[in-house]
Write a structure and sequence with these properties.
Elements lengths: L20 H12 L1 H12 L12 H21 L26 H17 L2 H40 L5
Helix pairs in contact: 1-2, 2-4, 3-4, 4-5
């Protein structure tokens, strides 16, 4: 079935004008990006259950990171009118919620999750994995995301950047 005047790429809109495919895009982006980086790969890398001691402090660290991540994904969806994916970014600059405290709280949430896994499994490999993503996320933000935000949001980005720190 082809909708919207024969264009199969255009999204289907309901009576309120809301994009019904935005939720599907947001869910896919969540599963494809932080779902893989923060959950699938660390669990694949983790020691087999029962063969390695675990540290209980990993659990609250994981939960805290998951709360941060989900809060940020929600803000991207609601306030930003988009997803966390580079192929479907928010239309609006997100400056609400945790974005009032950090320009990159979603990355902070993912890193908190990664350090939670490393702590829970007491795994040097997971710690190295987490530390590598500290570098990867920083380079991505500085080299790609911030220049893109400056081009697409102009003065709004400049004012936001002047009053909110990059990380903490």
């Amino acid at each position: 079935m082809v909708l919207n005047g024969g264009d199969p790429v255009k999204s289907v809109r309901d009576e309120d004008g809301q994009d019904r495919t935005r939720f599907a895009r947001a869910l896919f982006a969540f599963l494809a990006l932080p779902g893989m980086v923060a959950f699938a790969i660390p669990l694949w890398m983790a020691p087999h259950p029962g063969t390695h001691a675990v540290h209980w402090l990993g659990i609250p660290t994981l939960v805290f990171g998951i709360i941060i991540l989900l809060w940020c994904v929600r803000d991207f969806y609601i306030a930003g009118k988009g997803t966390l994916a580079p192929w479907s970014p928010p239309k609006n600059l997100v400056v609400v919620g945790l974005y009032r405290l950090s320009r990159n709280p979603m990355y902070v949430g993912v890193l908190t999750i990664l350090f939670g896994w490393a702590l829970w499994f007491m795994s040097r490999n997971l710690l190295v994995y987490a530390l590598s993503f500290v570098v990867i996320f920083h380079l991505r933000v500085v080299l790609f995301e911030e220049p893109w935000l400056e081009r697409t949001h102009g003065d709004e980005w400049a004012h936001y950047k002047a009053r909110v720190r990059r990380w903490f």
